[in-house]
Amino acid sequence: MAFLSGFFNLIFGWAINLGAPYNLMIITFIITLFTTLVYKFTTNQERLKSIREEMKGIQSEIKNLKNSPEKMLEKQKQLSPLMLESYKHIFKPMLITFLPLILILGWLRETFTANGEDIKIIFGLSWLWSYILFSVIFSIIIRKVLKVY
Questions:
Q1: Is the peptide bond preceding residue 93 cis, with omega within 30 degrees of 0?
Q2: Measured between alpha carbons, how far is 60 from 37 in angstroms, rounded to an integer?
Q3: pTM
Q4: How far apart are CA 59 and CA 55, in angstroms?
Q5: pLDDT for 1
Q6: Taking the CB of residue 18, how many other CB atoms lie within 10 A of it?
Q7: Dmax (CA) of the chain
Q8: Helix ranges restricted to H, the chain
Q9: Exposed site from 38, 51, 71, 77, fewest CB < 10 Å?
């Protein structure tokens, strides 16, 4: 991991020097932006949007059919192929981003761990929980701004 540490220090070293929590916030923003852009440009956004709308419609119909198990089962059968198609669209960007994310998370662990203990970043949370919190917040914002479905 020494080569990768040098590589990631070269890329993100400027941010590390800013100090916590700003360093982790900036790194998380960059990673989240990267994964969102990969997701946006490797998926058919129009098709995903239409699938999600269809799924919402069917799910609302299912809620209204609580007293009719046969019709509810029929609607659930309509929902299954849509979910499968949605997963097929999501799988490609997941494959593209998986390895880089694992490598970056390993580097973050090395960077934000001192003497075997996690450095507390924000609200007394470790770097990992802080990363997850920042990632969720940034993901919501970036997806809305870039109109990613």
A1: no
A2: 31
A3: 0.80
A4: 6
A5: 63
A6: 13
A7: 62
A8: 2-16, 22-42, 45-64, 69-111, 127-146
A9: 77
